[in-house]
Amino acid sequence: MLQKPPNFGTRNKGKAFSLTATRGGGFRSSETRTQDAEETRDVGRRLGETLQPGDIVALTGPLGAGKTVFAQGVAESLGIGEPVTSPTFTLISEYEGNMPFYHMDLYRLGTPDEFVWLGVEEMLNGSGVSLVEWSEKAGEELPERAIHVRIEFSNDGGRIIVISRPGGEAA
Predict the structure, then answer these.
(1) How many domains does the chain fold into?
(2) Which of 41, 50, 149, 169 is deepest in the core (most CB within 10 A)?
(3) What CATH number is attached to the domain comprising 35?
């Protein structure tokens, strides 16, 4: 059974997080609002603490929304000690920590077929965690078990992060 990340809905360094949970379409969803990069990184870190080998995180959001910052939080929770940067030009970066971490950036891809041609099947179905920025570029090629994370700008300059996990129970 999947669990929601620990400490959701609590305060972080004096800054409030808000969380709502909904159920629909076979997904459990939570919404969190953050006010700065550290809070966004912390949400990634807390999600990362719940991930298991073989999990896939599919990130979407506009340019500059904080996808790579979120990915850095996930990487920290997996024991990655080196800097995690956006692999926009290399497409895939592999890191070793508590388990392998595959950080993919599909920004430069034109079609879902190009995602398949990267040969990512072993990574997506292996013993590590795969995080895919610009995952919408993969189309239907990502497995249904992927955890979807959408990061959007909020009107107050912060971020709205919606995490949707496959599963029938509410988060």
Answers:
(1) 1
(2) 149
(3) 3.40.50.300
Spatial CB neighbours of 90, under 8 Å, sequence gap ≥ 6: none
Nearest CA to 137 out of 153, 114, 160, 159 is that of 114
pLDDT tens digits in sequence order for the chain, 171 residues long: 233 333 333 333 334 344 444 444 556 899 999 999 999 999 999 999 999 999 999 999 999 999 999 999 999 999 999 999 987 778 999 999 999 999 999 999 999 999 989 889 889 999 999 999 999 999 999 999 999 999 999 999 999 999 999 874 434
Check: pTM over 0.90? Answer yes or no: no
Which helix (H) or strand (E) is 129 found in, with range? strand 129-133
Cα separation, 134 vs 131, in Å, equals 10
Q: What's the domain range around 145?
A: 25-166
Residue 10 near residue 41 (C-beta atoms within 8 A): no
Strands 27-34 and 100-105: unpaired
